[in-house]
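Slide 14.
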Amino acid sequence: MAGRAMRLRPRSLKQQFLCYLLTALLCVWGITAYVTYQRTRDEIAELTNAELAQSARVAHYFVENMLQQRQRLDALWDGSDKPDLFFMPILGHKYERKIAFQLRSVAKGVILRSESAPDFALSLTRNGFSDTVINDQLWHVFSISTDNGHYVIHVGQRDDIRQQLISAVAGHQVISLMIVLPVLGGVIWLIVSRTLRPLDRVVKQLATRQAGNLQPLSLLDMPDEALPMLKQINALFALLEQAFTHERHFTSDASHELRTPLAGLRTQLQVAQKATDPAMRTQALQQCQQAVLRMTHLVQQLLTLARVQHQNVGLERAPLDVHAMLVSVIADLEHHAHDKQIDIELLGPDTLALDANAHLLAILLRNLIDNAIKYTPPGGKVLVSTHADNGDIRVSVEDSGPGVAATDYGRITQRFYRGVETAQTAEGSGLGLSIVQRIVDLHDADSGFGPSALGGLQAWVRFPRRAQAVESPIA
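Slide 15: predicted structure.
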């Protein structure tokens, strides 16, 4: 577990930038150094070959001049009279013993050589470049013969001279990198630290603010790359503030609404306990039962409101048959309408598809129809109608109840609000239309209220153009 925790621990952006940039630099430098090494090796080989050829041609010039004066050169030096070139001391240069010169007679062999050259021919090639191994050392030799073909000039160079030059160049590059890399790392660290300074300010803001502080973060002097993230954080703060505000209001309103029925229930229980008359005790218990039913309905509505209030805005939608769903909801509520002898009529196409969330749509329809049944007097009528309008779907619920004043249309969707006309005639919690309005908002739909042709209230909801009529019911 400790190893897993170490792997999951986030690393600093500064460390990552420094690591990635230095790694990239090393990779680029390595490729560049390799290419440079290859090019340097080739250039050094070309340069030294040119020097060998140039030296050989200079010696060839002097030998040709001597041949114009004498036909033969081997007679100039016999075995007892060697030229000073054979015995000239090495001056001490580190490369001097690695460079050799020979003048060779084709007939008699080497007649003139430098002290570093062997007494046998450096190469059997008479013209051009060649390689030879002498005493386990590789020599590069350039040969050029005289015009008469009797003499050959050899100029040789040991291969380790070239390798030392190449190694020296590569060594200088490595030393330069070892010096520059730490300096460059420090410069990169300073640049990255300065670039990420605005994010450090954001971190300090978040670290020092209180838990309830949901004010938006400042976007001043922030880099363009950080703005989308900060805007999303501010949007999240706004959503949290809105959720907390709803939570506070919901808690306050719920406690207020529950206080009254609880007080009534306690009073009726006290009456039932103290009553000596059986009829009075029975009446008090019936009142308690009614209070429990009202509280049960209120709690159910509160729970429903809490769910839809915190519903994720990105709803899962699917094509639904509105007519089939209305039939199902009316069937569930039919016993309430039957008890009050209310006639419920459903008008509209037999199949009408709507793109919506099935669970929330059922809650919306149930609240609208239940609200109409509740406020319609016995023997009244409720009309539920649907129709498509330019691709939109409109669902309307009308009743023959007392209706609502036009001035209250904008208030009846507020939580726990109840109209003056119906507050004393029907039991309710004042949450049904609040739930409807929240579901309407989640579906980006429209809703409204108006007078009904039946004499009561008309409530309608219009869903957007994702709806369309279909030929058969949709499961």
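Speaker note: The first strand starts at residue 99 and ends at 105.
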